[in-house]
Amino acid sequence: MTVEIHAHDVAVFANGSKVATVTRPGTFMVPSKAGPVDRAFNIGDVVLVDGRGFVLVSPLSFAGATEIARAVIENHSGTVTDSHSLRALATAVIGFAAQMVAPEPARTAIEPAEASAG
Q1: Which of 14, 52, 96, 114 has the most Cβ atoms closer than 10 angstroms to its Cβ?
Q2: How many whole angstroms separate alpha carbon 85 and alpha carbon 69?
Q3: Angle CA 99–102–104, to nearest 5
Q4: Per-residue pLDDT, 109
Q5: What pLDDT sits at residue 99?
Q6: What domain count does the chain have?
Q7: Alpha-carbon distance 25 to 103, whole Å?
Q8: Within a domain: 26
Q9: Residues 16-30: pLDDT tens digits?
Q10: Cα torsion angle, 27, 30, 33, 34, sign
Q11: Residue 106 pLDDT > 80, yes or no?
Q12: Which residue stretches of 1-118 are H helix?
């Protein structure tokens, strides 16, 4: 099943990979021990895609990235040696830093301040 993830690029790399910020919420199926389950993603999550547009790191929230970082710091063996965890953390650093440095413009118009009659 193909899932469309709406996002805008925040960084493009020499190998064609892109870090992007999710612009519309959605869900996608992920495997679990009990069978496939829906996993939600939200506006502001970050994603890594390769030059062909294939997802390398599925949408990741700041909380999700923090959990991966905690597992690395606590030396959980699977996380420390897993290249996917490394890519996920790199995606989070680039994606969330870009949001802080150049945040999305406000989606609603900002009304000008009313001049006070004095």
Answers
A1: 96
A2: 9
A3: 70
A4: 44
A5: 85
A6: 1
A7: 18
A8: yes
A9: 999 999 999 999 888
A10: positive
A11: no
A12: 62-73, 77-81, 83-101
